[in-house]
Every structure is written in C-alpha cells, then in structure tokens.
Amino acid sequence: YIYDPDLKQQERNLDHLLDRMVEMQVNTVFLQAFADPDANGSADMVYFPNRHLPMRADLFNRVAWQIQTRTQVKRVYAWMPLMAWELSAEHPASKELVQTETAEKSAHLNMGYHRLSLFSPVARQTIREIYQDLAKSTPFNGLLFHDDATLSDFEDVSPHAIKAYQAQGLSDDFAQIRKNDQQLQKWTAYKTRAIDDFSLELANEVRQYQPFLMTARNLYAQVALSAYAENWSAQSLGESLNRYDFTAIMAMPYMEQVDDPKKFYLDMVKRVGTYPHGFDKSIFELQAVDWRTGKKVSSEEMAETIDLLYQHGVKHVGYYPDDPIADHPDPAVLKKVFEQK
C-alpha cells in the first residue's frame, strides 16, 4: 500500500500511514518486507537489498525507521515468508519445491503456495541468505513468519523430504500413513517440528545483527479451534505458543466461511484459554477485508469484535490489512476500543 513508482506519492502514502498509527496509538506493527504483485501468495520481490530476489524498492529500511522515530510504536516486526519464495527459473533453488501427492483428492490437498522445500539443503541456504540480508538492512524488533509456514497431509513428497522421513523411520507410502493414526501423528509432529526448527534457526541468523529480536508466526484458525487440524497443516497451537514469543492466530471468519462469527471467535477464545499463557502469547488477528467479495469489513464491526474479545480475556488484537490509501479502518473508531487496553 505504501509503494508507488511515483516517489512523491509514495512519500504521501508513508506520511498518511504514520498519521494513522499516531491517531490509533498502536504499539506494534507487522511490516511486510516482501512484494507479491501477481497475488499468488509467494514473494516475487522484496523491499531490501539481497542476493536472490529482485528489489522492488529499498523501502523497508526507510519505513521501519520512520515508524520507529515518528510514532509511538514500540515494536516493528519484519513480516516474511518462510518458504514461499518465487525465484527466477535460472536460480539453483528454483526447482527445489514442495511437492504435493496427487493420487487422492482432498479439500486441503495443497496449501496453495508456491514454496521451496525446507528439506532441500540448497533451498534452505537460499532462504537463510535472504534473511541474513534482511537482518543487515535496518534495526527492527521482530520477525513475523507468514502463513506459508505449513505443509498439508499430502505434502511434502519431494525427494529430499522423503529421505528425511525415512531417516525418522517413516514409510514413503503416505496413503498408508494417513490410515494409521499413530503414524500420521508421528509424521505431522515431525513436519511441525521441522517448520518451527527452521524458522527459529532463521531467527538466530537475524539475531547476529538484531540481538534482541522477538518472534511471531501466523497460525491458521482451524488449528486454534481443533487439535486434529494440525494434521492438515503441520501447525500446532501448543507448540507455537511454547516456541515463539507470539502466535498471530488468523481469526478471520469470512475467510473461513463460518455461519456464526461470534461463536467462531468465542470457540477460539475458549481453546486458547486452556493453554498456560495462552492469552499472554497470542494475538487475535482480524480481517479488515472480506476477500471473497472484495468488500471491506466495517470499522464498527471490527471495533465490536475487538470489544467482544477483550471482554472474554483476550489481551492482544491486531488486524490485516491496514489500507492507508482508502483510510480503512477508521482510526477514530478503532482508537476508542483500543484505549480499553
């Protein structure tokens, strides 16, 4: 939303964003450090100098610095994909992709992102170097790992992944694994751990330049509602709360196509509340746009939801996206409810 090829317009966009932050008195910002112009979910470009991807503009440095020096915001997180990097066809890692088993059909067969396989040494090193280059760009306070940090129960079946599973004593007959609850849980737990281990390894790389770095990760709503959903995404609410400073749960009922948004929120609140420090370490991340229809969720509805969550013990609330161009959501409306905390 800030980037514009017209530098004067880009500067106006940034100034207006900063004004909105000041008016709402927000204390934390997840700043998207990557660009996805074709909207396919994977990063084609980034906003910082690096060795592997085109730089759309050297903008992350400037925006992060301006937020930290011109607003009351205490923490700026660099929001980054973990695996969803779309490299040029000539890049050595470009073919090292997550592979999806296609013998069976499933609603959650493929998580939808073009992703590099974290089991490939070449892909891991490429991603590691992207994060190293980000770390050198400017001071920031944290990393938010994007919602691409996931593998379905039909992924990853690339050669490097199969070799890693076999080293854990798992079969390469994935249909049989899915029919055996014990094997399915073992496979899921291994993939979940592999994702978390790699993301936290990247955080340690960044800490060489940003020693006080905090970590957060996006988590799908269904994982926060049902333990069984871990099998579909290799994400675990309990592990995430244990291993990251914050877990940003995508509490987005329109995206999930639920019939009763209030029940959706309260069911999620109930399950998060069963974990020690569940409310201390979770962020309920609301949607400001209904992506199915393209319509914006009204500022008043968002404020009512935030108020509901606060009333039931939630401590941290965020939303996505913030659209400073359209001035949505209305900072005057959200400020009133944010002031409750």
Account of the protein in words:
- With 341 residues, the protein is of the alpha/beta class.
- The protein has helices at residues 7-24, 60-70, 121-135, 159-167, 174-179, 181-207, 221-225, 230-233, 237-243, 253-256, 261-272, 299-311, 331-338; strands at residues 28-32, 34-35, 45-46, 75-80, 142-145, 214-219, 246-250, 282-287, 289-290, 295-296, 317-320.
- A 7-stranded parallel β-sheet has the order 1-4-5-6-7-8-11.
- Helix 3 (121-135) packs parallel to helix 6 and helix 12 (299-311) packs parallel to helix 13.
- Total strands: the figure is 11
* Apparent shape: globular
Radius of gyration: 20 Å
The oligomeric status of these chains comes to: single chain
Order of helices and strands: HEEEHEHEHHHEHHHEHHEEEHEH
Helix coverage percent: 40-55%
Strand content: 5-15%
Show unreliable segments: none
The biggest beta sheet reads: 7 strands, parallel
On the 0 to 100 scale, the average pLDDT is 95
Task: Quote the distance from N terminus to C terminus.
Answer: 28 Å
- Work out the helix count: 13
Structural category: alpha/beta
Strand order of the largest sheet: 1-4-5-6-7-8-11
